[in-house]
Amino acid sequence: MEDDSKQALELALQNNGHVKLEASKIWTYGFSPAEQIRLDYALMLMPQKIRRWISDIIKRESTHFEKSHAAHFDPHWQRICFNKIHPIYLSTIWHEAAHAYHSVIETKMDEAWRKLTDPHNVIYGNWAANREDGGCLWIGTDDDGPDNNCLTPYASLNIREDVAVTVEGAYSVLYGEQSLAAINLLKIPQDENSIFWQKLKQLHLNKFLKDKQYKRLLKILRARYKS
Ligand SMILES: [Zn+2]
């Protein structure tokens, strides 16, 4: 276990199931003690710069959500809502926290990100198809691997989802969480000049990842090709 994840887990356990995160003043409602420990643990791995933009986290009935999504972020209240009928995955917490922070820096960061991913306005919103089980595939295929400069078909829906899925992938790879974004991040091309690598660099530049995390992520991605 890496030092930072050990420390985050210790702090989360000390909080004893009552999400404190007092430095960030995040209020939570409706979670079990075990779920609160997960929230604490996941959020404490992220920079304070990200956490401070979340005001509260609430568990709600599934009727509150469009298409029974697992969670969403409401920028009006800076609030993350989790759907009662879904488990609370670490990857979902990272994804929604990314939306929260991105919502305040998007005017500053989106131009460079769009230039990388979709300079001709042909990708976002054009290539993802919903599956009946709620998943998402590339149109006309049964494939959901990294493509069209995006880690997953869902990420290609729009720039906000793209940023959130990329952050989710980065944290999931760093801390060993299974998610499609993580599996696909481990499949990106070896060429470090490729768009996927440049997008990770953008995440670091925009402080979604601490220096240490970014360095470790690059190390993990490079190690894939060493036998
Ligand atoms: Zn999202």
A few lines on this structure:
The protein has 227 residues and is α/β, with parallel strands linked by helices. The protein has helices at 3-14, 33-44, 48-51, 90-117, 159-174, 180-185, 195-205, 211-223; strands at residues 27-29, 56-60, 71-74, 79-83, 128-130, 136-138.
Element layout with pairings:
Layout: H1 3-14, E1 27-29, H2 33-44, H3 48-51, E2 56-60, E3 71-74, E4 79-83, H4 90-117, E5 128-130, E6 136-138, H5 159-174, H6 180-185, H7 195-205, H8 211-223
Parallel strand pairs: 1-2, 2-4
Antiparallel strand pairs: 3-4, 5-6
Bound molecules: zinc ion.
What report would you give on this structure?
By secondary structure, the chain is of the alpha/beta class. It has a single domain, classed as 3-Layer(aba) Sandwich (Collagenase (Catalytic Domain)), CATH 3.40.390. The protein has 8 helices and 6 strands, in the order H-E-H-H-E-E-E-H-E-E-H-H-H-H. It has a 4-stranded mixed β-sheet, covered by helices on one side. It has a two-stranded antiparallel ribbon with strand order 5-6. A hairpin with a 5-residue loop joins strand 5 and strand 6. The radius of gyration is 17 Å and the shape is globular. It starts with a helix and ends with a helix. The mean pLDDT is 92. Zinc ion (ZN) binds next to helix 4 and helix 5.
Q: Could you list some keywords that capture this structure?
A:
10% strand, 45% helix, 6 strands, 4-stranded mixed sheet, two-stranded antiparallel ribbon, binds zinc ion, 227 residues, single chain, Collagenase (Catalytic Domain), globular, alpha/beta
